[in-house]
Specification:
This protein has 510 residues and is of the alpha/beta class. It has 17 helices and 25 strands. The strands form 5 sheets. It has an 8-stranded parallel sheet. Strands 8-9-10-11-13-12 form a 6-stranded mixed sheet. Strands 2-6-23-24-25 form a 5-stranded mixed sheet, with helices on one face. Bound molecules: zinc ion.
Length: 510
């Protein structure tokens, strides 16, 4: 049988325990036909076969980003960049806003994204008055890089109907000036209220943005993504479907479903490029408190468990992680179910006893190793020294029997996988500083987080996440072999070709 595509002269890292590294892969249509030596695979080459000489480079299963936010990431690419890479002070933010205000007519919203108060020279959030000084005639929404907070200028506050009398919704916080009671512009966990006032991007704008986002995923070697947005409902599902059908979204996408949409989701139409994922519950974390609180969370999880859902809970801080572990472990104990694969998303601060609990309950943790790289300096400054040892404790979780998968959480950080591998293996920040704790993984374990284990976390390991006959032909060619490259040289690796369903969808210089 002739293949449609053959990759040869490669170092094929299969990510399948039963299959050692090979030299070549053949593909027929959208599936992998065979994996083996150059000599074994040569016989699949026919007159119509596209043959790629990998010149010794590595071939891996296409990377899976097990936790990201596609529409928010896409929108961020059309927004004013206020990330630490672009601005370093409130004055820089003001200058950027001024330029934007001059470029678009007054009254139109200015969307700015990515600021991080700890990375600003002032070490604090900007205020509404500082935004007013730069753009008084445009409503401004400046979104924090976490996505969980934003600063509005005075016009935007007015359009959102927010004043000194406004009461916070459950789990939300409106910062106020202590002497006057006036909102300072900083809103925590109040996105829903703001989104009612901000006009959505048009479909055309979104399509353009998703096209850009899609290009970034492909250039990162990412062939599947899981959209973990907790508000996903029928409108988002339809939008993603349309974006996919009209060719704007290239990677396969699994969309989680917001808890409040659990009833509707059974009727949504799926295919091999758009699948339904876990039921997402977000724990809002504010000043040591959590919302929903433990009892309410336990009831939500029990209901989802009874309905047969895979549950994914967003939990970063220590109390939230403990609450998520308890709720999921409790539901599994009360109502045992085979192969539930319930997930904790992030699991940022996880002391050993909680890691043991997560392991004993058979839970999956979807972590963000690239945070260690991008945020490492901040963690060293901000996280209490006695807690730094169990910050993203990948090794301890692994040892406790937890299946570990990885996601970028973009737009929080870019979707690139290489910094994540470096973070997981080196546990080093962008500035090269080592984070405390014996928590580093081997490169094989780190790669699994983005391939086989990421597939497992979405019940997709029968289809993707490793290179084996009959699996979908989603592949990435890397400039070098991560399994033999010295850990401190990992950052020099680059994706050079990305293949989805047997089609070369991206390549350097193509
Ligand atoms: Zn997220």
């Amino acid at each position: 049988m002739a293949a449609t595509l053959v990759l040869h002269n490669a170092r094929v890292i299969t990510m399948d325990a039963a299959r050692p590294p090979a030299e070549a892969v053949s593909v027929e249509g959208d599936r992998i036909l065979a994996v083996g030596s150059d000599a074994e695979i040569r016989r699949y080459v026919g007159p119509g076969t596209e043959v790629v000489d990998c010149r010794g480079r590595a071939v891996l299963p296409g990377f899976i980003d097990a936790h990201c936010h596609v529409l928010a990431y896409a929108a961020s690419l059309l927004s004013l960049d206020c990330s630490p890479a672009a601005v370093s002070s409130v004055a820089d933010i003001q200058a950027a806003l001024r330029r934007q205000a001059e470029a678009i007519p007054g009254g139109n919203w200015i969307r700015a994204v990515g600021y991080s108060e700890v990375d600003l020279a002032e070490g604090r959030h900007p205020t509404r008055w500082e935004l007013d000084a730069a753009a008084p005639d445009h409503p401004v929404r400046l979104i924090h890089r976490s996505g969980h907070a934003c600063v509005l200028n005075s016009l935007a506050l007015r359009l959102c109907g927010i004043g000194s009398e406004t009461e916070e919704p459950g789990g939300g916080c409106l910062e106020r000036d202590l002497s006057t009671g006036e909102p300072t512009g900083l809103l925590l966990e109040m996105n829903e209220l703001v989104e009612r006032a901000v006009p959505p991007l048009s479909y055309e704008q979104l399509a353009q943005a998703v096209g850009l986002a899609s290009g970034r995923f492909l250039a990162a070697g990412v062939t599947s993504v899981v959209d973990a947005t907790h508000s996903n409902g029928p409108a988002e599902w339809e939008l993603l479907r349309r974006l996919r059908q009209e060719g704007h979204l290239a990677p396969r996408l699994t969309a989680m479903v917001g808890f409040e949409h659990r009833e509707e989701a059974s009727g949504w139409e799926k295919d091999s490029f758009l699948e339904l994922g876990a039921l997402k519950i977000a724990i809002k974390e504010l000043g040591g408190g959590i919302y929903p609180e433990e009892d309410a969370l336990g009831e939500m999880v029990m209901e989802a468990q009874a309905q047969g859902w895979q549950v994914a809970i967003h939990a970063v801080e220590e109390r939230a992680v403990a609450a998520a572990a308890s709720a999921l472990a409790g539901a599994v104990a009360q109502l045992p179910r085979q192969d539930h694969r319930h997930r904790i998303e992030h699991c940022g601060l996880c002391p050993p006893a909680v890691a043991a609990r997560i392991g004993a309950a058979g839970l999956v943790v979807v972590s963000q190793p690239a945070f260690l790289y991008h945020n490492g300096e901040r963690y060293l400054r901000q996280v209490a020294p006695q807690k730094q040892g169990y910050l993203y404790p990948l090794r301890s979780l692994q040892r406790a029997g937890v299946r570990l998968a990885a996601g970028s959480d973009c737009p929080v950080v870019p979707p690139d996988v290489i910094p994540g591998l470096y973070g997981a293996v080196g546990r080093r920040s962008q500035g090269g500083r080592l984070l405390p704790g014996e928590e580093a993984l081997s490169i094989g374990e780190a790669l699994a987080m983005y391939t086989s284990a990421a597939a497992y976390a979405s019940f997709a390991e029968g289809e993707r996440g490793s290179i084996a006959p009959a699996k979908v032909a989603d592949l990435v060619v890397l400039s070098g072999d991560p399994t033999t490259c010295p850990p401190d040289e990992l950052l020099g690796l680059r994706p050079e070709m990305t293949i989805i369903g047997g089609q070369v969808v991206w390549a350097v210089g193509r």
